[in-house]
Design brief:
Helix content is 14%, strand content 34%. The protein has 4 helices and 17 strands. The protein has helices at residues 19-26, 76-87, 144-152, 190-199, and strands spanning 4-5, 9-15, 38-41, 43-48, 54-63, 66-72, 93-96, 101-106, 114-120, 123-132, 204-210, 219-222, 225-230, 237-243, 254-255, 258-259, 261-263. The strands form 3 sheets. Strands 16-15-12-13-14-11-17 form a 7-stranded antiparallel β-sheet. InterPro entries: CAF17_C (IPR057460), TrmE/GcvT-like (IPR027266), YgfZ/GCV_T_CS (IPR017703), YgfZ/GcvT (IPR045179).
Length: 280
């Protein structure tokens, strides 16, 4: 069994009788209320600002009578601070596990210990693995294979592809990849998410860019206009969040002045060239 360390992930444990209610009332996803951490699917989620922008995002899985959430290291301090604020007097203990635990990725064979399926809607990414630091000595100390896989599938990650408070949940496809529970009650930013869904005003979406010879953050240019920017680059590929309406001729798209190929993820229900709703 090969497990790859995901060194850029920070882990937090939420426990106590009101942990599930706290998270379910604050983040976008359908947070699991049960599970032993023995192969159940983790839930994708995002913590939004009141304006609907993503402040943190990751996976949540249940194990050992607690919920285990991972976020990108770049937003870990802010996430911890905000969740302690939202907790108020609720019976919830929030443990910062950055000094004691690590997050890993496994793909082919089901690992041992605390693990959850990393499944985003129709996309099967493998396994999210959680272990104390002392149990990770034999893990592969890089996440190259994980990044290559998720980029090839068009999966966008905060910190790798976009910063905090920069993108809406629809921009990264969370509405398609089951990172939003449209049936539950209010959560922070819910009004914006709901409006984008019902008015069809999602104008930015992920695309896969191939043939890249430029660093992350470089502009995707179509028809002489900037359509978006690329994220982390792996083997000449990156995911970019782009304005769909600005890419009417994929054959003319460039990054850093050089031609690139644009493709939609296999899970996409949108098209290049889609126009913005009149309500936007």
């Amino acid at each position: 069994m090969t497990i790859h360390l995901r060194a850029d992930r920070a882990l937090f444990r939420f426990s106590g009788p009101e942990a599930h209610r706290l998270l379910n009332d604050v983040v976008t996803g359908e947070i699991p209320s049960t599970g032993e951490g023995t192969g159940e699917a983790a839930a994708a989620w995002a913590l939004l600002s009141a304006q609907g922008k993503i402040l943190a995002e990751g996976l949540a899985g249940h194990a050992d009578d607690a919920l285990w959430l991972d976020v990108h290291q770049s937003v870990a301090d802010d996430f911890f601070k905000r969740m302690k604020m939202y907790r108020l007097r609720a019976q919830v203990v929030i443990d910062d596990l950055r000094d004691t635990h690590r997050v890993g990725f496994a793909q082919d064979e089901e690992p041992q210990g605390i693990r959850h399926m990393d499944r985003l809607g129709p996309v099967d990414m493998g396994w999210r693995v959680i272990a104390p630091i002392e149990a990770t000595a034999d893990w592969v100390q890089n996440d190259t294979s994980y990044q290559q896989q998720r980029i090839a599938l068009g999966i966008v990650h905060q910190g790798n592809d976009f910063p905090a408070n920069d993108a809406f949940a629809h921009d990264i496809g969370m509405d398609i990849l089951e990172g939003i529970d449209f049936a539950k009650g209010c959560y922070v930013g819910q009004e914006v998410v709901s409006r984008m869904k019902h008015r069809g005003t999602a104008r930015r979406r992920p695309v896969i860019v191939s043939g890249v010879e430029a660093p992350a953050g470089s502009a995707v240019v179509a028809g002489g206009k900037e359509a978006g920017t690329i994220g982390q680059v792996a083997d000449g590929m990156a995911v970019a969040i782009v304005r769909l309406d600005r890419i009417t001729d994929p054959g003319t798209v460039t990054v850093d002045g050089k031609p690139v190929e644009i493709a939609l993820p296999v899970w996409a229900d949108y098209r290049l060239g889609d126009a913005v709703s009149a309500d936007e």
